[in-house]
Amino acid sequence: MSLDVVHSLLLFLFVFGASHACLQDPAEAYRFTGAVSRLTYPAVVVLNEKTTKVIEAAFQHARYPSVKGETSLFLIGTLIYGLENLEIHNLSIGQSTFELHPGEGISMEITNVSAVFKGRIQYGYGSWLVSVEHSIDFEIESQIDLGINPKLYCGEGKVAADTSDCFLNFHKLSLHLQGDKEPNWLKKLFTDFIIFTVKLVVKGQICKEINKVANILADFIQERAEQFLSDGDISVDIGVAAAPVITANYIESYHKGLSIYKNVSAVINESVFHPSQLTEHKMLYFWISDQILNPMFTAAHHDARFQLNISGAELSELFKTNLSSIMPEYFRKCLLESGSPQLRVWSSSVPYLHTSTLGTNVRGTASAQLHCGGAGAPTLSFQAEVDMDITVSYADKKVFLQNNRSEIYVLQAEFSSQNQPHLDQAQLDFIREAVEKIGIPKVLSVFETEVTRLLDEQGTYLFDIFSPEVLPQEGFTVIQMDFGFPHHLLVEFLRRTLQ
Ligand SMILES: *[C@@H]1O[C@H](CO)[C@@H](O)[C@H](O)[C@H]1NC(C)=O
Ligand SMILES: *[C@@H]1O[C@H](CO)[C@@H](O)[C@H](O)[C@H]1NC(C)=O
Ligand SMILES: *[C@@H]1O[C@H](CO)[C@@H](O)[C@H](O)[C@H]1NC(C)=O
Ligand SMILES: *[C@@H]1O[C@H](CO)[C@@H](O)[C@H](O)[C@H]1NC(C)=O
Ligand SMILES: *[C@@H]1O[C@H](CO)[C@@H](O)[C@H](O)[C@H]1NC(C)=O
Ligand SMILES: *[C@@H]1O[C@H](CO)[C@@H](O)[C@H](O)[C@H]1NC(C)=O
Ligand SMILES: CC(=O)N[C@H]1CO[C@H](CO)[C@@H](O)[C@@H]1O
């Protein structure tokens, strides 16, 4: 069974995708919202613990440009000087704190960044001077506090962060000139110049670098999103329906979740989302509407994604399951005596899904053919209507789908042999029971494996997810969890992207 459509489901874990319109009023936008993600204060605490790593990377990867200046000196004439090869050493970062400001943004303060800047100053005298003649190395010990007030906004249909409100306070800046053999007036001049310049250069470059790292992170997320956004002819527009909302306790973003199949987009304009449907005690919430899932399943069906072939030993093995009805003789022969039995199953009507507090109800029609070797007509063909309630859970880094209740109705069944095309009641009972006890569990287990694999492909297994819950509600599903952000993930990300 190819379940690439499931890719789309996973988007919500990662994405702020691209699209266009963006409503100003969230309440108005709820109607157009197919998926919501809510990150609460405790989650931001965990993410903030990693802020210092990002800041460290920002300092280390900032490029400090060379700076030149000149000044007129009494008796001497013009003094030309330049600062170059500014490098940072022995960086250490104290701590980082943050606050959520309702309706405004986030404020972050990184205190006690200490670093040693090393560089070389070149200078020369004379109004005619073109080339600089002397140089001295210097070191500056510094202690800096850094403040960033990122604003989240809705830019070009995606959540964007503006980190331009960024400031640095220097608590300490002490200069050591190497050798210290320069005349005092020159030292004084350089001290003023270097300290002023270093402040300016460092402030400009660090804030720029933080913005860059933020953008790289966003692009990284977006890139991954785009990778699964397009899968053949199916994609999902998860652009934002409104600007994200910040309250004292959470950050929430609203996404459209429109499946697009062969350029035809689904429409969501009557979504039942309301913020009261989510609580605030877990770290991370996803709210997913049936209105996203149905068009996605429809597209997958039309794209012939719901197909499964089982053959040979795997098929014989499946039919060792104990059933209360007796296996018809032709079936037993097919499994045991034909060289290569094969069962082909596919969805033959658009599946329909409705979530309620009992679970997710899925209805659809499945068709199947049993081939008993050879290329000819199938020995048996049948079609069954399936109506089942499924509950979803995630544990031990695996997705579990449980069939809570199912009803199967065999719509039609026939043998290809001309003399006896119709099945008797016992044979129909056998098919019904086999679909229920063998078919459904098999299909669900294929789904489980497939969804788990796709989640793993996106690196979900790398996260420490604690007590995840999937809560079916009327017309939507809430997925809530706590998580840990493994240190090595961020380190790895920064290493790969900044090099
Ligand atoms: C960095 O720290 C180490 C160990 O504390 C010290 O030996 C070294 O001189 C420092 N480097 C600078 C440039 O201050
Ligand atoms: C700042 O960092 C330095 C060096 O890591 C440390 O000695 C000092 O105690 C810190 N000060 C504060 C206020 O955290
Ligand atoms: C779908 O959209 C793409 C890109 O906009 C376009 O190249 C293609 O012709 C469209 N296909 C159909 C069937 O409209
Ligand atoms: C929602 O969209 C459909 C299809 O475009 C349209 O027929 C319907 O009137 C819309 N409903 C509302 C409430 O806007
Ligand atoms: C199942 O087998 C049929 C016949 O060989 C083939 O056409 C079809 O593509 C197969 N489907 C899958 C999902 O492998
Ligand atoms: C099937 O049922 C028989 C008799 O009830 C029992 O002996 C056997 O262990 C069962 N097999 C399985 C795989 O459950
Ligand atoms: C087998 C199973 O999971 N049964 C559950 C089906 O759903 C009802 C209602 O939620 C539960 O009470 C059953 O335990």
Automatic annotation (TrEMBL):
Disulphide bonds annotated for this chain are C166-C207
Q: Which GO terms describe its molecular function?
A: cholesterol binding; cholesterol transfer activity; phosphatidylcholine binding; phospholipid transporter activity; triglyceride binding
SUPFAM superfamilies xref list: Bactericidal permeability-increasing protein, BPI
Q: Tell me which domain of life the UniProt entry assigns to the organism this sequence originates from.
A: Eukaryota
The record's keywords, sorted A to Z, are:
Cholesterol metabolism, Disulfide bond, Glycoprotein, Lipid metabolism, Lipid transport, Secreted, Signal, Steroid metabolism, Sterol metabolism, Transport
A GO BP entry is:
cholesterol homeostasis
Give the CC-aspect GO terms.
Answer: high-density lipoprotein particle
* Annotated InterPro entries: Bactericidal_perm-incr_a/b_dom, Cholesteryl_ester_transfer, Lipid-bd_serum_glycop_N
Residue span(s) of domain Lipid-binding serum glycoprotein N-terminal:
38-264
User: Can you say where in the cell this protein is located?
Assistant: Secreted
Q: Does the keyword Lipid metabolism apply?
A: yes
Q: Where does the signal peptide begin and end? A: 1-21
Keyword Oxidoreductase belongs to the record: no
List the SMART domains hit by this protein, alphabetically: BPI1
Q: Which PANTHER family match?
A: CHOLESTERYL ESTER TRANSFER PROTEIN
Q: What does this protein do?
A: Involved in the transfer of neutral lipids, including cholesteryl ester and triglyceride, among lipoprotein particles. Allows the net movement of cholesteryl ester from high density lipoproteins/HDL to triglyceride-rich very low density lipoproteins/VLDL, and the equimolar transport of triglyceride from VLDL to HDL.
Query: What family does the database annotate?
Result: Belongs to the BPI/LBP/Plunc superfamily. BPI/LBP family.
Q: Can you name this protein?
A: Cholesteryl ester transfer protein
Instruction: State the organism of origin.
Output: Gymnodraco acuticeps
